[in-house]
Amino acid sequence: MLLSLASCKNNNQVDHKNSKPSLDEIFSDTTLNKTQKKHFLDSAYASISTIENDSLKNENLLEISYQYLKIRDSLKFLHSNLEARNIFFKIKDSARVAATYWDLGNFYQSSTKDSAYFYYTNAQRIYQNLGDDFNSARLLLNMALVQKNVKDYTGSEVTTIKAITLLKPLKKYKQLYSAYNNLGIIFNELQENDKAIENYNIALDYLYMSGREYLYPSIWNNLGVVHQESKRYNEALSYFERAMNYKENLKTSDPELYAMILDNKAYVNLKTKDTLGIHKDFIEALEIRKKLNINGGITINQLHLLNIFWR
Asked: What does residue 231 show for φ and ψ, rounded to 5 degrees?
């Protein structure tokens, strides 16, 4: 199967036209469990040396490295990523060197923020030098998210605006939605609520143009939070209810978001003294967050529960 691959998807950096299945398409098969995927990947990795076409070999090596990242096999990912990067340095394939840096940024995103930012920056500079504005902007967005997560809100705002400048002429609506949503979060953290709402509404416009309707509950939740913090409880409740009722299967399709909205909605009801059923809602949200090991959400949930007895 590996030898039949004419070209492979490259961590979403480059879209290759291909009528044959890529590893990413094969791994979308929900019947394969993690052990089966790892076994297949290990076999594919061992077979790399048998491919005579250097270009095909290199593309498959990069794809295999990416798939190791997706199944969180850290050792195999780091080893294959380094092997791929050394090859691409040797043949002076800058775009694919950037792709290996991008993957490393993703790898460190949830653990070592400084490393994630470092690798995203390396990748972004390469794409910038290549004149690839779209991928350069995508990396700027990743960098901005890292900055926001370490509470460098000013840096994140500046980096996000740089991304927006590149994305607007390209009419990349999904990424523009992400950029303005990030600005909304930044201004909310800075307690500049009117600016937060303004940016969330711009994000909503781009979300509509992108056609990705499944993202509406997330941004409606964000808008609800801003109104809640501004003590505009009726508006907040309206957004939380809209988010909660948008998709019947939200609880199963995105339990983390469902728990967040349920907790926020119950908290607004508490604030408005509409307490019927809120204890049940808080407990349900808390149990979901415990099951998913969302520590920050668990803490917030427990504080909200304490408010029932302190009021």
From this structure: 65, 25
d(CA 304, CA 275): 12
- State the average pLDDT over residues 202-228: 96
pLDDT at 244: 92
Closest CA to 84 of 102, 97, 71: 97
Place of tokens 């009021």: 311
b/e per residue, 238-261, with b = 16+ CB within 10 A?
Answer: bbbebbbeebeebbeebbebbbbb
Domains of the chain plus CATH, in order, are 1-131 (no CATH), 222-311 (1.25.40.10)
Report the run of H or E that residue 115 belongs to, with start and end.
helix 113-129
Task: Give 32-61 pLDDT, tens digit per residue.
Answer: 788 888 998 999 999 888 888 888 888 899
Which residue carries 């149990």 as its tokens? 287
